[in-house]
Each structure stands twice: as structure tokens, then as C-alpha cells.
Amino acid sequence: MDAHQRLQQDERFYEDYDSISIKELILTIWGFRRWIVILGFAATLLVVGVGAVLYLLQEKYPVTKLSFQLEFDSAEKGQYPNGTPFSSSDILVTPVLKEVYQLNDLEKYMSFSNFKGSLSVIQRNDELRLLEYRYAAKLEDRKLSVEQRERLETEFREKKKSLMTANYELVFAGDESSAPLPPTLRAKVLNDLLSTWAEYAQSVKGVTQYDIALVSRDILRPEDIETEDYPVVMDMLRSTLKRVLDDIDKVMKVPGASVFRLPESGLSLLDLRYRTLDIESYRLNPMLAIVGAAWASGNGRHTGEYLRHRITELKMKAQDADARIKVYEKALKTYVQGGGIDAVGNEIAGALQAAPPGAGVHPFGSNVMPQIGESFLDNLIGMVKANLDIEFRRSLTQKIIEVGLEKARIDSDLNYYAQILKNIEDAEKLGAGKLAADGARQEIRRSIAAIYDNLMQTISQIRTIYEGLSQANLNAASTLYSLTKPVYFTVEKALTTQRLIPYLVVAWVLLQGCILLGVLIASAFMKPGGKQPATA
Predict the structure, then answer these.
(1) Angle between helices 269-279 and 437-474 (to 10 degrees)
(2) Which of 7, 65, 260, 480 is deepest in the core (most CB within 10 A)?
(3) Which residue in 475, 474, 479, 476 sits closest to 254, CA to CA?
(4) pLDDT at position 467, please?
């Protein structure tokens, strides 16, 4: 057989075997049906056997669960009673875990990282899950009209609200590297975690109280007023008194604060405010008249320098406030005259660009602006861009008022320090021999001690009213949680049947595919009549 004949024979062979039809595939599979059934059954037995071995021989580990429910109403919204964000992960924050870890001496059993990794919080709501499945099936219907779909969604949301409960499950799973913990200790750890978290949330984060920052009694210590000169002590008391008044104003904004009274004394916030103002008017300020007569300290030069520094600082703040008022007034005037927001922004930006780096700027012809720099003008430009028309005018007017009030407070402080300095300088001119020392000094000491005690008492009373309002308005329970079920002990496996079955199904499908592929490959070499591929 020459080469040409062999080439034609090979072409006919490949034409026979390359032309595949559906009919031939079905006939081939039908011809091997017995083998397919036998091998398929064997593959099924193999998959089931391997799955059973894997499931039965895998290592088991203990699991302890504790079900609980959050008692504050805003838990479903992801908020604590005071409105701050809440997450179930807050229960397992590091400070809580460390305290429980040390409290129960768990270092004997596992490392802290293993302890942290073995804990989890799972939200449980079987009724809500069933409702979601039910409505998901209804909403999958493509024949629904838009109105029907909207009605179903509205109905689902209404039913979902009624089923929203803050039910959780705290899970303590075993760890392969850890020594086994006694069941009683595992149960104690879970209970300690919840109680420690509740205490941490209330005492450290203050979640059952309004998110208001108040001063404490530590703002001014007794030793502070014993070691400083009288003018400095008076300044410290005056600053503390202002902060107390600010705290009263903060708490007054809480709903119900105006009618709330202390249980024992019956005092209200308004009473505390008036009493604090009386302390300033009738006890603190009158000491200015006698502080010069009582000036017998050997540290007079130091105190004089302190007062002069405060006066200089306040003068600079006053100049800064004046300059800011001029900027706001000029911006408002430019806008009202028809310049528009863009003109105001361009004028301010031009003033900013014209200023040398790090130096104060002098926009709109202002002669004094020692404290104004890029941050102030950037904020003003942002306000220009963020507000429109009436809101822009209102915001500028409000800024002018705020800075004007700040300027008034600065002027008041400036006059206060100037008067103290004048009294001291007058006393120094009289000479040490003419100071009415003992009587005046004792009177000032008694007044300072009385003012200090009154301020500390007022701080405590403000705190009591604040806590009472928080308790009354936020409806915060004495405990943030309650247990819904006792501790549950079980033994679980890492590979559950729910996770194993999908893997087994995939393996079974692959094996069936391999069987069919093997049948087709075998049929390619076993043509009817014993026809075999031609060889050279």
C-alpha cells in the first residue's frame, strides 16, 4: 500500500470518528447501560462510605451556649439607651475579655488569643427567619403586579417590626490547642462575660445616661487651692464656677430637666443656677476689695506676672474677636449689596492668597487681625459654599452674634484681671508694714474654703439630677440584659452534615461524569464489528 492510499484510509477513519451525533451518544450510553448502573452504584457507595468515615472519625469539641435578650428598647435599632451605636461585637471587646480571662484564671487552660477566638455572639430569631422565607417565596412570583408587590413588601415590613426582638446566643466553642475546661467553669465564663460587659457599658461608656460631658469633683482639688496665692486661687475658683454654670445649661436642655427636683432637698437646676450666680456675686467678687489688704505673700512678683500674662492673652483674644466680627460683617455686606456668594468667596480667597504663609491676614482693609489665619478663612469659605441666600445670611448673622458674645465675655475677664492686678499693685505701694495681714487673710481663707465646698456640692447635685433624668427618660433597665434559657452544653463537630452533604453531592456528580466519559472513550475504541483505528 503506497503512501497515497494510506493517507486516504486515515482520512476516512477520522471522518468516521469525528462525526459525532446525538443518536450515536444515546445508543452508546444505552449499550453500556449495565456498566453505567453498576459503576454508578459503586460510586454512590464510595461517596457515602467516604463521607461516613470523614464524619464519624472527625474530632469532636465541646460547645457551651447561653441565650439572652437585651432589655433596652433601642437594641433593635442598633443603639444603646442614650443613642450611641450598639453592636453585638461590643459584648466581646478586649477590655471585657481580658477581665473575664484574668478573673477565671483561664491562662491555665488556653492562651488569650485562643480564648478570644473561641467566643462568638449570634442573633437568634427563628420566627423572623421563617417570615423572611415565606415572603421571599411570595415575592419570587413573576406574575405579581407592581401594586401587589408593594402591598406584600409593606405587609412584610409591618410584620417584621412586631417580630424584631434582641435575642442573642453567646457561644463558647472548644479549641484544639486548649485543655478541656470543666462545664461549670465554661458556664461561669459565659455569665461573667455578660455581667462584665453590662458593667463596662454602664460605668465606662455611660450607655444608660445622656451623652453629655460634665465636670467631676476632681476638676479642682483641695491641695490646689492651698498651695497657690490668693489671686490665683480666686481665678481657679472663678473658672470652676463658670464650668459649673455651663454644666447646668447642658443638663437644662434634657427633656424634663426644668421640673426635676432632687429627692431629699427638693432643689431644681434653676435653684442650683441661682445659688451659683449668688456665690459669684456675693462671695467671690467681693474678695477683690480685700485681696490687696491681705497681700502678704512673698510670691507677689510671680502672681503679678501671672496676671499680666492673662491680661495680655485676653487682649489678643479680644483683638481676634474684633477682627472676626469685621470679616463676617464685611462678608454679609458684600453679599447683601448684590455681590453674591461667589463674590464673597472670591474676596475671602483673595485675602487668603495674599497673606504670607503662617502670618495673620488683613482682609477688607482690617488693620488688626493677630490670630486669624488659614483655618478661619477656610471655614468661612466653606460656609459660603455650603449655604444659599437666606440661610447664608442667617448663618453669618449668627456667627456675628456668637463672636460678639465671646467678645463680651473676654472684656469681662479682662476687667476682672485688671482690677485684681490694680489691687495688688496698690497694696505693694503701701509697703509690707501697712498690710492688714492676719484678719484679712483669715477671712479670705474662710471664704475660699466655703466657696470650694459649695462648688463641689453643686457638682455632685448636678450629677445626681443628670443621672435621675437619664434613668427616667431613657427607660434604661437596671440590667442591660436578661437570660432567656439556662446554659446549654453540647458536643459538635467541625464538619456538620449541612456542610458535608454539598461536598458529597459534588463528588458524586464528578464521579458520574467520569463514568460517562469513560464509557464514551471506551466506545471509541470498540466499534461494532471490531473495527479498530488504523495503524501504520
Answers:
(1) 160
(2) 480
(3) 474
(4) 87
Lowest mean pLDDT: which of 182-196, 325-339, 507-521? 325-339
Q: 456: which DSSP letter?
A: H
Instruction: Kindly indicate the confidence band of residue 382, based on its pLDDT and cuts at 50, 70 and 90.
Output: low
Higher-pLDDT residue of 273, 444: 273
Distances (CA, A) of 334 to 171, 341, 372, 380, 396: 65, 9, 20, 14, 12
Phi and psi at residue 527, to the nearest 5°: -70, 150
CB distance 232 to 295 below 8 Å: no
Question: Between 125 and 96, where is the model more confident?
Answer: 96
Phi, psi of 120 (to 5 degrees): -155, 155
Least confident of 256-270, 376-390, 416-430: 376-390
Which residue intervals of 355-388 are DSSP H helices? 374-386
- 3-state SS, 121-187, equals EEECCHHHHHHHHHHHHHHCCCCCCHHHHHHHHHHHHHHHHHHCCCEEEEEEECCCCCCCCCHHHHH
Global confidence as pTM: 0.54
The percent of residues above 70 in pLDDT, for the chain, comes to 73
Of 290, 299, 192, the C-alpha closest to 234 is 290
pLDDT given for residue 6 in this prediction? 57
**267 vs 404, more confident:** 267
Whole-angstrom Cα distance, residue 336 to residue 61? 76
Q: Exposed, middle or buried by CB within 10 Å (0-12, 13-18, 19+), for 152?
A: middle
**Strand partners for 63:** 173, 490
454 — pLDDT class (breaks 50, 70, 90): very high
pLDDT of amino acid 534: 41
Give Cβ neighbours of residue 164 (< 8 Å, ≥ 6 apart).
Answer: 76, 125, 128
The answer on pLDDT for 296 being more than 50 is no
- Closest to 118 (Cα-Cα) out of 168, 173, 67: 173
The amino acid occupying position 316 is: M
Give phi and psi for 167, each to the nearest 5. Answer: -95, 130
Q: Residue 441 and residue 296: Cα distance in Å, rounded?
A: 8
Q: Which amino acid is at 131?
A: L
Whether 536 shows a pLDDT value over 60: the answer reads no
Spatial CA neighbour of 172 closest among 275, 95, 63:
63
Q: How far apart are CA 107 and CA 127, in angstroms?
A: 40
What are the residues facing 120 on neighbouring strands? 171
Q: What is d(CA 518, CA 491) in angstroms, rounded to the nearest whole number?
A: 43
Decide: 251 and 215 in contact? Cβ < 8 Å: no
Using CB atoms within 10 Å of the CB of residue 329, give its burial: 0 to 12 exposed, 13 to 18 middle, 19+ buried: middle
Residue 22 has pLDDT above 60, yes or no: yes
171 phi-psi bin (left φ>0, alpha ψ -120 to 50, beta other):
beta
Integer angstrom CA distances of residue 105 from 99, 102, 170, 272, 485? 10, 5, 20, 49, 26
